[in-house]
């Protein structure tokens, strides 16, 4: 923990809660960079973050090493092993039976904030676990600007929406994508954010009905993204071109003030026909 002391001290200062504010448990084991085990046997998955980890199916005897995964697990062990922790905010149980929660150490240190500040995790919120997103995004941005941890690796760099062929190579992986939205189409309670002139090959962000309701509750109109530079995070799919499914507003960051709409001709044709073409491309 010594090389990360300055970053961790920041979160000690800003994330402290009064002593005795919540029940606490001792951490007895660390599974990986974002999962640990409490003294009562429960596993806790740290909510809102994604630490580096070996690909699915990789085992200790396959001859490959995963230094960033090891670094994240080591950092979490340094932070939490043998320490008392308590839940910060709400907690839920995920489909694997783990507790999904933000954890705070007995001295006030917020584990998610510390890992993000050290560059050993990326923000990865979920529709049912969106709390503290603003603080996490700020910590991630500080680590990225400083080039800490995983932000020194090309494997985790921000991808560009202007390079759809490159992004397509990362299908079925969690990525952070940045670019300017050229067009927004809304129809039937859904919305499409287009980053290129041809949605059949270029990058698209799709907001389904549930995401649109969540955006409305947050006071966000997807049309406000047109002409804006944004950063989107999510799993990369392929439906014609690369697509990111947005399920909640925290997946999209506005990066600059509104810009004049691009001087291009809006495509004719209703989005329902587009959905039919999408289905053909699956």
TrEMBL record:
Q: Which residues form the signal peptide?
A: 1-21
Keyword Nuclease in annotation: yes
* Entry keyword annotation includes Nuclease: yes
Q: Which GO terms describe its molecular function?
A: endonuclease activity; hydrolase activity
What is the protein's given name? Nuclease
SMART domains cross-referenced by the UniProt entry? SNc
Query: Bias category Basic and acidic residues: which stretches?
Result: 273-282
Naturally occurring in which organism (per UniProt):
Azospirillum thermophilum
Q: Where is this region: Disordered?
A: 250-282
Among PROSITE patterns, the record links this protein to: TNASE_3
Which Pfam families does this one have? SNase
Q: Which domain of life is it from?
A: Bacteria
- What does the record give as the organism's lineage? Bacteria, Pseudomonadati, Pseudomonadota, Alphaproteobacteria, Rhodospirillales
Its keywords, alphabetically, are: Endonuclease, Hydrolase, Nuclease, Signal
PANTHER family named among the record's database cross-references: EBNA2 BINDING PROTEIN P100, SERINE_THREONINE-PROTEIN KINASE 31
Identify the InterPro entries for this entry: SNase_OB-fold_sf (IPR035437), Staphylococal_nuclease_OB-fold (IPR016071)
Q: What are the TNase-like domain coordinates in residue numbering?
A: 21-153
């Amino acid at each position: 923990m010594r090389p990360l002391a300055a970053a961790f001290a920041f979160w000690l200062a800003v994330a402290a809660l009064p002593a005795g504010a919540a029940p606490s448990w001792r951490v007895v084991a660390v599974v990986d960079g974002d999962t640990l085990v409490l003294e009562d046997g429960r596993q806790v998955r740290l909510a809102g973050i994604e630490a580096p980890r070996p690909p699915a199916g990789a085992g200790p005897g396959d001859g490959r090493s995963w230094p960033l995964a090891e670094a994240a697990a080591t950092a979490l062990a340094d932070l939490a092993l043998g320490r008392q922790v308590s839940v910060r905010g709400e907690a839920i149980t995920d489909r694997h039976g783990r507790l999904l929660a933000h954890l705070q150490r007995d001295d006030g240190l917020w584990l998610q904030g510390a890992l993000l500040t050290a560059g050993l995790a990326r923000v990865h919120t979920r529709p049912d676990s969106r709390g503290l997103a603003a603080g996490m995004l700020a910590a991630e941005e500080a680590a990225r600007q400083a080039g800490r941890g995983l932000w020194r690796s090309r494997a985790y760099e921000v991808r560009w929406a202007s390079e759809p062929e490159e992004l397509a190579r990362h299908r079925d992986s969690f990525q952070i994508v940045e670019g300017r939205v050229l067009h927004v189409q809304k129809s039937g309670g859904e919305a499409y954010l287009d980053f290129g002139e041809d949605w059949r090959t270029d990058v698209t962000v799709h907001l389904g009905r549930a995401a649109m309701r969540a955006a409305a509750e947050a006071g966000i109109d997807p049309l406000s993204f047109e002409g804006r530079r944004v950063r989107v995070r999510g799993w990369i799919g392929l439906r014609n071109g690369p697509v990111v499914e947005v399920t909640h507003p925290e997946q999209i960051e506005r990066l600059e003030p509104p810009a004049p709409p691009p001087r291009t001709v809006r495509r004719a044709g209703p989005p329902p026909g587009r959905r039919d073409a999408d289905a053909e491309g699956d």
